[in-house]
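# nightly structure sweep
# worker-07 picked up a monomer target from the shared queue
# config: single-sequence mode, recycle default, output format = structure tokens
# input follows
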Amino acid sequence: MYHLARLAALAATLSTAMGAYQGFNYGSSFTNGAAKQQSDFEAEFRTAQGLVGAPAGGFTSARLYTMIQGGTANAPISAIPAAIATRTSLLLGLWASAGDAAFANELQALSSAIQQYGTALGGLVAGISVGSEDLYRISPTGIENKENPGAAPLTIAHYIKQVRDIIAHTALAGAPVGHVDTWTAWVNSSNQVVVDASDFLGFDGYPYFQKTQQNDIGHSKSLFDDALGATKAASQGKPVWITETGFPLSGKTMGQAVPSIANAKYYWDQVGCPLFGSTNVWWYTMQDSAPTTPNPSFGLIGNTLTTTPLFDLSCNSSKLGQ
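# output follows
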């Protein structure tokens, strides 16, 4: 039965090959800590769908980091009914870096969502990510950057099994279950058990942060391609989805990488445009500055929701290999 479930999950993944998922990452709260409500998610999803100049297919998918609605112990996140109302597909996420008790609440929220929304949810789920960059956060680099706590490889593998147990024989039974992490985590052999446990590998890659290498904007595409290639080589042939990438429009210089609208547009053209429509991509991000602007800021729009982005999103002018 487990083997058949894995085959079904992989078949579901392959079924999107001719029409890849295309969307953004969405947090559960605003930058001031206020929890987003269903109306907030609906507004964001409709804005994403209406972005002027968007590549063919538009941005109709959302990646979530948690199943839990902000301000509750374990109620399902209101992004789910918002997605149903707007026909937005979902890469569901369960936060896995807060310990077993907190993860039990994520599992409860997942179970409740399945019971509450059933096939209306099942028809929108691209996959389920168990954790986000947990392996990176327990690595020496993650600890040095004070980004711990994370979670150990065996813990993530165990959590993946728990998720599969919950979705078995439900509307989500065919959903691929995997993990999202940095490329440096995926190529680390000590994390092999997570590769083994996953139906897909979620790839987070940011040349902007690769400050120990030559990471000026002119080298951004080659750095991205090298990292993606290394992840695919470690994937055992399993699908690799682009779950986070982008370039900041403002903020501090990191190594030789200088945030600017022009450089973000260059990265979009050189990295994003070749992927859109052929690979599952959840870009980082549509908006990250509501109501305040972080440093760095990766948002394609500013503090106010608008369908007019800060640079031209059309891929007509992309010059690959520039």
